[in-house]
Structure formats: C-alpha cells, structure tokens
C-alpha cells in the first residue's frame, strides 16, 4: 500500500528503484572502468588520489547525474507523502459499506479529500445519524440523533417538542425538548458490526438541562444491553449535572468483538416515581472510543 518508513528515511544519495532498473538495461556502462588485467590493480598515485577526490568531481558529469538522481528521490518522497492515507483508510473498519447510507456522495477524487471528510463526519439516513473516523485511533464513531431514537410520547406536542439545532461542526439537526411528562422512556439501537474491532467504546447520552428543570429528584436509569444479552445498568442523578450546556451521561462501555457482533440497545428511563419532569433536551447517543484522562 503506502511507502514504508524505512523507504522514506533513505538519504538523498541513494539510488531509486527506477534508476537501478535502468542501469540493469545497460550493464556496459558499469564495466567501462573495470580493470582489464592485474597490473591495473595497484595503489593509486598521489595524482590519482587528487583525481578521485570529491572536490575534483564536483563539476563532473557523474556528479550532475548524482544530483539528478537525488532529485528523483525527493520527487518520490513527495509523491509518497499521500500514500500513508491508503493505510489510514484501510484501518477504518467497514467504511465503504457504511458510506452507502450517506445523505450526499462522498468525494473520492483523492484519498486526502476522502480522509478529510471522514474525519469531519458524514450524515446518514437523512441527518438522523452521523459517522466519522477518530483521527488518532482510526476507529469508527457514530452519533444517533434524537430522531433515530424511540422516545415515548415524542410525537405528542403536549409532552415533547422538536427544535432545529444549529451547530458549527454538525450543521442543523433536530433535538427533542421535554415539555412535561411523568413517564420518561428513551431507547436506541445500533449494530456493533459497524464499529472497529478491538476498540474500547463508550456509549453516552448527550443531553442538556434547561431551567426550570424540575422533577429530577429521583435518579434516572441508564442501561446498555450488548449482543448476546449481557447487560450494564446504573442510575444517574441529573440534579447534580451542569445546566444550560451539552453533557455526556455515560451508559456503558465494551470492547468490540467481530464474532460477537450484533444489535445492542441503549436506554434511559424513569417512570416509577410518578413525578412530572421538564427541562430535559435530548441530542442523541454518542458511540466513540473511550478517552482516558
């Protein structure tokens, strides 16, 4: 695929492969100065040492050829600067299949442009999801926006309202704002086979609490059910969270396995306390590599 690190670190004096192949086609050029008899195999005289010195050959035709060869190596290095991008793309697991659901065509005219788009993110399924590649780990990341989730009573304007949210990095997406409800239930589903194998992922709800945020005296339940039925569940006290800004509420974490891939379910719910709640804004669910701080 791309040029190896050892190839890129060769000094400029080294001959590139193309020049070496040319010399193989004209072997007589390397044999003109070879000794023809044993008498020529003697120590060079002082004058010959002068002739063989680097200073003498500074302006010789052979030195010009060396300069030309050095230029060729630099050109190869410049051209190979884009070759590592092939490796970067190859590490993005299943990206070609994922991009089939892209809202708009991805520019594949160059590997550099394609990588830039994957790092910035691509909207899927009519802006209900977003896919991007984390630059350092080359791992697939996803955002499931509120429209991709199942929210109880979300289509009833008495309980929830949908708002167009503008973001510099994400453009315009829809968020769900809770007006007033006592039965909170949010579910999302995702196929883990789209994630990068061997990566430790963290799943989180992205939410905001707007004043007056009321009815959150009881903690909410968050749950992650992995393919195969393994469950992670705990409670989160939203009363302790910051207000008027997007925050992450962690649900669970797991290492992706190719053989155990399948659909996982992410949930947030609280309906046993019977308290009327308001002031919650749901942006979606983030699935991305866990960052250790």
From TrEMBL:
Xref: InterPro entries: PP2-like, PP2-like/Lectin
Give this protein's Gene Ontology molecular function annotations: carbohydrate binding
Q: Where is the composition biased (Basic and acidic residues)?
A: 31-49
Q: Where is the composition biased (Polar residues)?
A: 55-70
> Region Disordered: start and end of each range?
1-70
Composition-biased stretches, type Low complexity, lie in 1-27
Give the matching Pfam families.
PP2 (PF14299)
Q: Which PANTHER family match?
A: LECTIN-LIKE
Q: What is this protein called?
A: Phloem protein
What organism, scientifically named, is this protein from? Medicago truncatula (Barrel medic)
Upper lineage ranks? Eukaryota, Viridiplantae, Streptophyta, Embryophyta, Tracheophyta
Q: Which gene encodes it?
A: 11444052
């Amino acid at each position: 695929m791309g040029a190896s690190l050892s190839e890129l670190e060769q000094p400029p004096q080294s001959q590139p492969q193309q020049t070496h192949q040319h010399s193989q086609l004209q072997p007589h050029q390397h044999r003109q100065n070879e000794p023809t008899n044993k008498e020529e195999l003697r120590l060079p005289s002082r004058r010959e040492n002068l002739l063989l010195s680097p200073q003498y050959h500074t302006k010789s035709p052979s030195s010009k050829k060396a300069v030309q060869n050095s230029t060729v190596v630099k050109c190869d290095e410049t051209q190979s600067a884009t070759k590592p991008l092939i490796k970067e793309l190859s590490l993005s697991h299943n990206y070609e299949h994922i991009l089939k659901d892209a809202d708009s065509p991805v520019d594949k005219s160059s590997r550099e442009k394609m990588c830039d788009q994957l790092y910035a993110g691509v909207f899927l399924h009519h802006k209900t999801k977003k896919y991007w590649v984390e630059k350092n780990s080359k791992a697939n990341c996803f955002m499931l926006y509120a429209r991709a989730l199942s929210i109880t009573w979300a289509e009833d304007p008495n309980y929830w309202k949908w708002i167009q949210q503008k973001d510099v990095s994400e453009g315009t997406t829809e968020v769900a704002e809770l007006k007033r409800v006592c039965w909170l239930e949010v579910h999302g589903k995702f196929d883990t086979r789209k994630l990068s194998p061997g990566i430790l992922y963290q799943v989180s709800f992205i939410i905001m609490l707007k004043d007056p945020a009321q009815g959150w005296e009881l903690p909410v339940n968050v749950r992650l059910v992995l393919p195969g039925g393994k469950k992670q569940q705990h409670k989160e006290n939203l009363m302790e969270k910051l207000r008027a800004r997007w925050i992450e509420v962690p649900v669970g974490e797991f290492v992706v396995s190719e053989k155990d891939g399948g659909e996982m379910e992410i949930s947030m719910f609280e309906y046993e306390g019977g308290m009327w709640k308001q002031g919650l804004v749901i942006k979606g669910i983030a699935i991305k590599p866990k960052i250790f701080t």
